């Protein structure tokens, strides 16, 4: 009979079973002892924190549950949950005929089709997201009131609390509730739409449980716990890790979000994200969701940003930031090459605002900001955050790149305006165009048809209008019909011949690309265009 490798004698099988049972008993006994130790530790920690008010600083989490080594989040949740709030807001509902006006500023700046904007369209407006969305004319009714809800958390024993600006924007009444069922009337102390943070105050209290912001930023991969009020389900807890740092989601010039994969849904806005020490490391603000539900991508304002903003709101009710007053854009590799920069770093100045501190200091369109008070500027977003982190009236030394060399200027920073003041009186209606002008030979292989702006109704008197782009043009991703070319290679242009001469000059110099200053609608930007297809 063939030898069967799977066949085991009865005696051997019995001995193996006894060995396995003994091992299991030993493991079970060890687990029981460990469980008793953990239970005792949790009980001692809870007894201690009930005697103090600052739940983030006075607990056993630091000693008994080292960072990243807990097997349960229960100790963290039991410790900090009393400070987490459900926020309910009564708002004046805007006219349904103006859907755009219902959208908080934090979302209003997002481009059409952005998942975060679609999420607000569906869920974010008072009483649902279908108001004013139907076909046909919208009727104006009597003034209505809407209800909004979100999350928050106490940061002091005397009733200061943090939430999102978009939760309490246009609020008439604010009520906060704790996990034990208590409710309090609250008032809005101040808001900061640019970071989407708001500070609330409950009056006539002095012994509330509260939490505090952590002094250290979490690392990518650290465990975090989110607690909030999703869909009105107060005290809901989810957990995950920090997926990324420094995320720019297109919500504003100061985007610097934590990305977490803990489940965050509608109603979590303004709630805290904790580390395993019970410290707040982020304020939940937005989710990325093509469908409107949680897909494991959420964004929180990091504690280092929130701390500065909340402290200033507490002191003065508003946030003031330094202001340079220049429109900027990133420096691409093509732009860097066209300007003679060794690497694509810094912030390209598109246009200084008239009368701004930057213009008064001599900063010009086409300059690249390389350095601010010894800090190397990595990109446009870095410059925005750096200047915003400085106080108004601060004197700063700025290093520019201009005409192939460095230039230093000193700027007295102004105060960042409360609202976007880059309004334009330009008429963007192109109107009726005149007959096309002859395309210069130097532009023939780029597939561009140009006309002087002065010959195009509504285009103004400066620059050259792009009237057509061929399907196989190599610049179709950089320019579009209706764009107005203002400068080519730092020289102002007013006719197609001017543009052609600038391109021909660049070819003769052996330049691979030429920098064009282009106006699209009310916005101005720079694009680097290759001087030929080849």
Question: What is this structure's SSE topology?
Answer:
Layout: H1 10-49, H2 61-64, H3 74-80, E1 84-93, H4 105-108, H5 115-124, E2 144-154, E3 160-164, H6 165-168, E4 171-177, E5 183-192, E6 197-201, E7 223-228, E8 236-247, E9 257-260, E10 272-274, E11 280-287, E12 298-302, H7 303-316, E13 322-323, E14 326-330, H8 333-339, E15 347-352, H9 357-360, E16 368-372, E17 375-376, H10 380-388, E18 395-402, E19 405-412, E20 414-415, E21 448-452, E22 464-469, E23 484-488, E24 491-492, H11 496-508, E25 513-520, E26 523-530
Antiparallel strand pairs: 1-2, 1-4, 2-3, 3-6, 4-5, 5-6, 7-8, 7-10, 8-9, 9-12, 10-11, 11-12, 13-20, 14-15, 15-16, 16-17, 16-18, 18-19, 21-22, 22-23, 23-24, 23-25, 25-26
Number of helix segments? 11
Find the structural class using helix and strand composition. Answer: alpha+beta
Give me the Rg, rounded.
Answer: 30 Å
Shape: elongated
Number of strands: 26
Average pLDDT, all residues: 78
**Which segments are poorly predicted (pLDDT under 50) over 5 or more consecutive residues?**
1-10, 19-39, 95-99, 123-142, 420-436
Q: How far apart, in Å, are the first and last alpha carbons? A: 79 Å
